[in-house]
């Protein structure tokens, strides 16, 4: 009769979650956050009433996730592992009730599965080099209720400049954006007009992003971290950032000069 089970940080023998987990058919909440798990049992398909599932486990090696999630059609919140093995193929197209989805991998999941998830408010995407960016962009365009969008760091996104493929200014409801994607030259059309919070890291921007960011008049917080900007000079001009409350600039090793004009 158990409804809530939190196994965060638990270490399992041999890295295997016991198959008996499938007997807890009334579970609504299951968390394996940072748990020591490398293999999930197929019996998890019995957990059809789950509303919340956190599989963001602590694994140095990749984890095998059997294709059981398609059975959990009541899910509202799903957190997937960032590293899944090459044998993992997930069908998520029936999860039409999802509101939060973390770790959606374009390597292990069909991008078109996103088309049916019209209730999504929060989405974190892990890009792979096999991703069809045109299909991804058109699928994202249908998520009209999206409020927060993350592009997670991976080797592929760090090494290749993908941002030329993305136009995000049609996300009129998007309030939060986090990008760990290479973009040597920022473009104003890449940022939704009503953004309140933006976090950029590992972007490798060679041009000063401030002339673009300061024109996003709804911004309340800006974070630039870990080589988001690799230039030497940054300028915040008069009249820019009218609502900004917090600015965090860290680990920008090339930055030598920061000019803040009066009235910025």
TrEMBL record:
Q: In its keyword annotation, does this UniProt entry include Flavoprotein?
A: no
Q: Which Gene3D superfamilies does this one have?
A: Ribonuclease Inhibitor
Does Repeat appear among the keywords? yes
Q: Which InterPro entries match?
A: LRR_dom_sf, LRR_R13L4/SHOC2-like
Q: Which domain of life is it from?
A: Eukaryota
User: Residue limits of the Disease resistance R13L4/SHOC-2-like LRR domain?
Assistant: 1-250
Q: Which UniProt keywords apply?
A: Repeat
Q: What is this protein called?
A: Disease resistance protein Rpp8-like protein
Could you tell me which species this protein originates from?
Arabidopsis thaliana (Mouse-ear cress)
Recall the taxonomic lineage recorded for the source organism. Eukaryota, Viridiplantae, Streptophyta, Embryophyta, Tracheophyta
């Amino acid at each position: 009769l158990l409804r809530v089970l939190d196994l965060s940080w638990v270490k399992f023998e041999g890295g295997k979650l016991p198959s008996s987990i499938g007997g807890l058919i009334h579970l609504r909440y299951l968390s394996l956050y940072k748990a020591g798990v490398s293999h999930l049992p197929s019996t998890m398909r019995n957990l059809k009433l789950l509303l919340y599932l956190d599989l963001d486990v602590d694994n140095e090696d990749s984890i095998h996730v059997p294709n059981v999630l398609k059975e959990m059609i009541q899910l509202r919140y799903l957190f997937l592992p960032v590293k899944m093995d090459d044998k993992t193929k997930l069908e998520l197209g029936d999860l039409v009730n999802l509101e939060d989805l973390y770790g959606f991998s374009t390597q292990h999941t069909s991008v078109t599965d996103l088309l049916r998830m019209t209730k999504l408010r929060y989405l974190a995407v892990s890009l792979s080099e096999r991703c069809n960016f045109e299909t991804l962009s058109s699928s994202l365009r249908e998520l009209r209720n999206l409020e927060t969008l993350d592009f997670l760091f991976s080797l592929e996104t760090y090494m290749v400049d993908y941002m030329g493929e993305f136009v995000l200014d049609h996300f009129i409801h998007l309030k939060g954006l986090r990008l760990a994607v290479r973009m040597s030259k920022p473009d104003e059309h890449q940022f939704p007009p009503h953004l309140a919070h933006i976090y950029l890291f590992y972007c490798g921007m060679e041009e000063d992003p401030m002339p673009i960011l300061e024109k996003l008049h709804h911004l309340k917080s800006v974070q630039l971290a870990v080589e988001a900007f690799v230039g030497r000079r940054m300028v915040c001009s008069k009249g820019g950032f009218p609502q900004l409350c917090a600015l965090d600039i860290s680990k920008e090793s090339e930055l030598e000069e920061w000019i803040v004009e009066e009235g910025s």
